[in-house]
């Protein structure tokens, strides 16, 4: 089914990866955040599935998460990095010429203060002004930071919302179907998920929390029961389970359904594996050295 892997050298201790067309050649390129090197590595697609030698750009200290999106409105994808050790979010603006063989270059980072141990950035329009904003979670501050786009890819100082203990992952989705994007946060030490509902203009209600298993690790949002409402799926590292939180309407998730996995499940993916148009779940079990597949009934 697949050719043997082709490997590309990176710097030390990579932590996050994202892909998007960075130079407007309609081919996805790869960006890797290098936690140990405090850089990002970029690999440009050569159109035949191979990638050029990496290019590196400095970030803040210990980047722990990378997101891609056109934050300046110039039709070139920019890079957003959460820097874990210096409590910032960096934006690297793409000033490339859009040709593949030419070097697509990025301006030096612009850093914005976030909370302690910032991670897992997402680029999304949270206030319906047609400009993408940034949201990240702060693992030691127990908060989420929102940076609203002020135009031309510059961002206002962070707006902070309290979440649970040790947030590690965040997603943006309209969970109550009011056409406004809401925020979903995974809280590792609280063994919970926080929902922050968007009430308009990018302001959010205080969190509402829902219990999941022990040490939740990974988060996905999908319509699991085919009722057109987005549900939440979480892997629970310490309880060796996945939790499915079904959306009861208006963005509420009162009951979890648990399924046993292998030992210490970490990442998960939700997709239709068998062509029946129903979402299935795949988890990687780090303690069992295997993967688990849950087919939808």
From TrEMBL:
Pfam families (alphabetical): FG-GAP_3 (PF13517)
**Gene3D superfamilies reported in the protein's UniProt record:** 2.30.30.100
Keywords, A to Z, come to: Signal
InterPro entries in the cross-refs: FG-GAP, Integrin_alpha_N
Superkingdom of the source?
Eukaryota
Instruction: Please identify the protein, giving its name as recorded.
Output: VCBS repeat-containing protein
- Highest classification ranks of the organism: Eukaryota, Metazoa, Spiralia, Gnathifera, Rotifera
